[in-house]
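Slide 14.
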Amino acid sequence: MSKTNIKKVVLAYSGGLDTSIILKWLQDEYDCEVVTFTADIGQGEEVEPARAKAQAAGVKEIYIDDLREEYARDFVFPMFRANAIYEGEYLLGTSIARPLISKRQIEIANETDADAVSHGATGKGNDQVRFELGYYGLKPDVQVIAPWREWDLNSREKLMAYAEAHGIPVEQKRGKKSPYSMDANLLHISYEGGVLEDPWAAPEEDMWRWTVSPENAPDTATVIELDFENGDIVAIDGQAMSPAQVMAHLNTVAGANGIGRDDIVENRYVGMKSRGCYETPAGTVMLKAHRAIESITLDREVAHLKDELMPRYATLIYNGYWWAPERRMLQEMINASQVTVNGRVRLKLYKGNVIVEGRESATDSLFDVNIATFEDDEGAYNQQDAEGFIKLNALRMRIAARKGT
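Slide 15: predicted structure.
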């Protein structure tokens, strides 16, 4: 890619250390105009300070967009209809945010006639893949600048030295010691680096920001009721809420009860293992509740098929293929399965636990107490039918046993 062909770049800009340095680096190395794009996806911090920082750096076109509702409605909720979880533990909080940021970044590039887009993901991580697969999936011929794959500022110490040399302010600076690398949005906050690079070392208690420790959670349980329509939570305790409001409320309530902490070593798409800690209060509750309402409203084979396909769906999101045709195809199937997922779930939140206390659906429950009862079912189920069912299913094993195999 010729630097002389780049006149304008749209940078995914948080205003933090990495992207502030990238902004200056792009201006100097590419001698280009930089358009900054800052997304509010519920990270819990003010995004407006990014405007002042961008202005101080000479940026003329500054985009700061509130994408919380779009993020929850069009990305998180569709993912949770699938009960998606990566490698049995990770609720995909960072992964699912990237396709939205990529989408908006490409839209801004088109609006501003930019020649390229740029991001702050490192050359060791998954995010470079997620961002760039999104870019190419939405704008096939876009030019991408990934500074971490070009420069030699390959440590926090070098980045901080660069920041000092160019007068770039650095928040939370602790001498030469790096703070945790953190990423937050409505679904989660993640922590990497520091002591966490040793998978045997326990995370420091003061690292956690959204949740109290289960030991310090209240001694009295919190009971909540969640209403579902077509697989999505639409109300909590009878109060209608938008998707983003649902997530914000559950983050507060679940976090106060010590729910949502996880410590994971995961397999990155780029080939290495990585240890990270996550707080996902709302997501932990949403997953438990969604499976509970599906348990009475989904046909057995539909539910089992969804469970078989879920790991593939989760891996697609983890690896950055949200905009790929196979993910879109799976989403159509998942959405179709949710037409009958309507009803209410009652949960008890207590010291890090999410406990299902009840589930009901006035219109779509497949649970028939007249058939399931241990009492007299008055002929609703003929128990003698089970004999033939068992013998037919045992036939192949009986034949093999007779042959001694």
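Speaker note: Residues 173-178 have pLDDT under 50 and may be disordered.
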